[in-house]
């Protein structure tokens, strides 16, 4: 794709998922496939929390990617795009659509959809939608099964993860100030959650020490309602649990946090996918939507993810995941969801490693996008 120019449009609707995915994609297309990439984004302040080098300017080049501020009236350049990605149905500005229609040859227009494990995704992946004047918009669905676009992950990610051993883990934890000995280490990155007090009590009553690593974020509100004010870098003892309030991590450093834990609570889409690549058990806090539409997506993923897991281990993780997302750890009559997950952790870890290998076999999203584009731009 060295001679192709890709343009990605991204609106930050809420939190970090939209820009997190778009930046990873832009970076991978440039570094792994030598594409020329321009990323339009409307919220530079949120972007800067993931990539601290981002400045509040109209245009900048970082790590080889041109980043442009999507303002109310974006000033388009004259360079034609070969591939235009409308991320998550963000609705391109009319000027951009007019520019595409004026191009010869016409560019490839892709609507990059939200990640889903729902079965219908396979049937819709890659379908065109006529937009007039010979211009088509193709729907590209990330996913977890053959016939989808796969998920984002650098080509060398499995090798880097495999090289992360006990010495690297211990050194990283020590550098973060995590010094309390622990039998189990958990990362907790989530939205506000009414289930947290019950989970905290289970951690406090653990028969063995447990470390809780909590990057700064929305879940802090729920935690402080129980334990009081948190201060970065100041560990807090809560029974058998030691809680470590950590700063929000730049995106490039998040993998080390995941790899250094035994189980990861994650949220949204970007951290969710990275936790799967980590090959460790995870609990996903899906972004809540009106009318509980999000629970349909949660059901689809859990059933697919746990389909080949040992029955008892699958039941434990399913109970904890549903309890966490319903804000009630007793949901479905499960009263010891946490203890069950810990008891079945070896089997869940083995299953998580197999799942990461499955994702690798699907091909990563950037590679599949490049292949799709090449086939249509001959």
UniProtKB/TrEMBL annotation:
Q: Which superkingdom heads the taxonomic lineage of this protein's source?
A: Bacteria
Tell me which Pfam families the record gives.
EarP
The membrane-spanning stretches of this chain are none
Which InterPro entries does this one have? Answer: EarP (IPR016633)
Q: Which residues form the signal peptide?
A: none
Catalysed reaction(s) here are: dTDP-beta-L-rhamnose + L-arginyl-[protein] = N(omega)-(alpha-L-rhamnosyl)-L-arginyl-[protein] + dTDP + H(+)
Q: Which UniProt keywords apply?
A: Glycosyltransferase, Transferase
Any one Gene Ontology molecular-function term assigned to this protein's record: protein-arginine rhamnosyltransferase activity
Outline what the protein does.
Protein-arginine rhamnosyltransferase that catalyzes the transfer of a single rhamnose to elongation factor P (EF-P) on 'Lys-32', a modification required for EF-P-dependent rescue of polyproline stalled ribosomes.
Q: Which family does it belong to?
A: Belongs to the glycosyltransferase 104 family.
Its protein name is Protein-arginine rhamnosyltransferase
Organism this protein belongs to:
Amantichitinum ursilacus
Which taxonomic lineage is given here?
Bacteria, Pseudomonadati, Pseudomonadota, Betaproteobacteria, Neisseriales
């Amino acid at each position: 794709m060295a001679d192709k120019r890709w343009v990605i449009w991204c609106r930050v609707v809420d939190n970090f998922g939209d820009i997190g995915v778009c930046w990873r994609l832009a970076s991978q297309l440039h570094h792994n496939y030598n594409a020329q990439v321009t990323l339009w984004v409307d919220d530079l302040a949120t972007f800067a929390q993931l990539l601290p080098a981002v400045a509040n300017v109209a245009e900048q080049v970082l790590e080889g990617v041109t980043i442009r501020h999507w303002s109310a009236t974006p000033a388009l350049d004259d360079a034609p795009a070969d591939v235009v990605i409308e991320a998550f149905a963000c609705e391109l500005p009319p000027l951009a659509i007019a520019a595409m229609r004026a191009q010869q040859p016409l560019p490839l227009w892709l609507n990059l959809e939200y990640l889903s494990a729902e079965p219908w995704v396979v049937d819709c992946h890659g379908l065109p939608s006529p937009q007039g004047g010979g211009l088509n918009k193709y729907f590209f669905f990330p996913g977890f099964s053959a016939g989808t676009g796969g998920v984002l992950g650098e080509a060398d990610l499995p090798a880097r993860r495999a090289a992360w051993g006990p010495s690297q883990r211990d050194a990283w934890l020590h550098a973060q100030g995590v010094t309390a000995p622990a039998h189990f280490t958990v990362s907790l990155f989530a939205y506000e959650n009414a289930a947290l007090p019950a989970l905290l009590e289970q951690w406090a009553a653990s028969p063995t020490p447990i470390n809780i690593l909590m990057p700064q974020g929305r879940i802090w509100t729920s935690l402080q309602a129980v334990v009081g004010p948190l201060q970065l870098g100041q560990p807090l003892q809560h029974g058998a649990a030691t809680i470590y309030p950590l700063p929000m991590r730049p995106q490039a450093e998040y993998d080390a946090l995941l790899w250094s834990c035994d189980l990861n609570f994650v949220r949204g889409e970007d951290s969710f996918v990275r936790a799967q690549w980590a090959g460790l058990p995870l609990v996903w806090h899906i972004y809540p939507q009106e009318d509980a539409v999000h629970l349909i997506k949660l059901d689809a993923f859990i059933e697919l993810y746990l389909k080949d897991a040992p029955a008892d281990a699958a039941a434990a993780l399913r109970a904890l995941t549903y309890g966490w997302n319903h804000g009630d750890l007793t949901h479905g009559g499960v009263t010891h969801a946490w203890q069950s997950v810990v008891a079945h952790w070896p089997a869940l870890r083995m299953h998580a490693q197999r799942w990461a290998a499955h994702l690798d076999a699907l091909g990563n999203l950037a590679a599949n996008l490049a292949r799709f584009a090449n086939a249509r731009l001959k």
